[in-house]
Amino acid sequence: MKPAELKSSTSSGCRTAAARTICAFLNTRGGRVLFGVEPDGEVKGQAVSDKTLRDVTATLSEIEPPVFPSVKAIAVGDQSVVVASVEKGHNRPYTFKGKSYRRVGSSTVEMDQSAYNEMLLQQLHGTSRWENEPAVGWTVEDLDQEEIVRTVEDGIRSGRIADPATRDPSELLRGLGLVKDEHLLRAAVVLFARGDRLLPDFPQCQVRLAKFKGIDKTEFIDNRQLEGNAFQLLRISTEFLRQHLPIAGKIVPNLFERQDDPIYPPEALREALANAFCHRDYSVGGGAVDVAIYDDRLEISSSGELHFGLTVDDLYEAHTSQRWNPAIASAFFKRGIIESWGRGTIKMAELAQQAGLPRPEFEEMPGTLVVRFRPSSYLPPQRIGRDLTDQQRQILAVLAARGQLRLGRIEELLGGEISRGALQSDLQFLRSVDLVDAQGWGRGARWLLKESQPVD
After folding, report:
1. Which of 87, 179, 185, 210 could pair covalently with 30 via S-S, beta carbons 3.0-4.6 A apart?
2. How far is Cα 308 from Cα 187, in angstroms, rounded to an integer?
3. Is this model's pTM higher than 0.70 or not?
């Protein structure tokens, strides 16, 4: 059901307030205004004539660009309610008397300049985008020509490209829509540039890879920063994950051997990486794709935010794919790296849940979109401010597996290899760094993991 706002009458003041709200509805997801209904929902109605409808329409006609809302009267007993209704606008941002408005919850507020500029940029995006501007000073010789040929041949094998009967890189780029008026587009550079040619022109063609020791950024085990084309960076990122992700082992019923699998499903991670390289905002000169592995999570971040009114919640459901970089995304699709439009985030969630993991978390922060994967079971961290000992990690693992335990029971489950005093000391330390807590006192106290682990 469309959101609605209630106005007690079609007086001049109510019409003006309604026009602001209709403007806000046009800038968001559509909605309707009901005249003749009190704010508490009491339907009073009013006498409605042709002039009443003309007055409402005339006020709404001051919205720019021009729109034609549905304005009609609905009989309620011997009175009528006037309903003005609009869908989401196609020419956003809209203004009323020179000001633009948006909805925040159930309120209409004036749109700030940054939100207005973002909406205007999205409207112009169809014709004027960073990726389809000429790459001044670049030629085919500056590109990885083997990568161009490989992309087309992969597309032929996947059935997404008809064989062009040539392997000339210049002709293949034309067929991929990456040449305009005899100039290479910036999208061609992102997709195929030689790594040694990118700086200083395209510093944003970069990936930052880190494996941290523990659950924060205090200390890292491996840290890399690399430039390259999008396909090259995807391969590098995938290999980095393969090298550094822990293995989850389990005993499979009816088999006499242990089955070891990556703790996160590789296909879901590849989908997340491909989405990051396809949909990030390349206009941000200092932007990059970041891959960070912690003891308790994996995060893939990319420069840019959600556009076209898309929210984080929408990513878990079927949604229309409005690609921020259509030319770049098209090359990934033709090569068979991404499968279908609008399902990438859904596929990540499905793959994670099939592997017994929680669905990925999506978080939008200023200038950055983060995809976060978490393991299905508790992983004791290696470091909280300082390195944890193997013994401390064993205590955490026991509490994760068994829940609340008395001190003596923890001692038993550890095989009696730790003295009572050392165990108490370790538990007090783990409590001091907010990893465990105790319920009760003295001999009856039970130790347990804290419900929320600190994450930086």
Report:
1. 87
2. 21
3. no
